[in-house]
Amino acid sequence: MNTSLARRLTGAAGLAAAAALILEVPLYFFYSGAPPASNVLSRLLIGVLGLGFVLAFAMAFRELVLQADPRNAWIGRFAGGAGLAYGVVTLVSSGLEAGAVIASDRPIDPTVTVDGTYILYGTIGRMLLAMFLGSVGVAILRTSVLPRWAGLLTCALALVNLAFMPSLFFGNTPAHFYAANGWGTTALMGAVFSWWLLGVAIALLRRPKTVTN
Prior knowledge:
- The chain has 6 helices and no strands.
- It is mostly helical.
């Protein structure tokens, strides 16, 4: 695989992931009270599809870094591993939530969460996403696969995710911004991540071809 092909694959995977995740986020705000099961399952289905593309993006980005600068391949491997861990953990939490919805014939009470999922979506998810974004940002800065500003922005988003890790001390009410599964910790951070993916994907697909290896 050469650099141009790795760039196109990474950009395409990022674009697909962004499209799915951007479509998912508005579904969290359709209902002010308990959403019906159909709403929850719909957003989970879209989210699972988006996470599949996130996994593809992480693996393709690892290959892109290797092709662009073999000296920094370790950063690409770290980014790929962190992206894989984030995707898998979030998929597990989505599976637990979907299972609870399917087993219930009542609307889902937004103040009640399956045991542990608010930590997986919240603190654990924020830590893993911070590791992924941080390593991607460093890789961009060290390999110039994207402009320097993109690397700095990505590192800044990693720090923002880290800032939400202590949210587990502030309850698990989704209506609260800084709760363990609050709309700021989960929905807002998810939206920011999806728009970041969209920007990075477009930049990768539009960037002029580089010399292939």
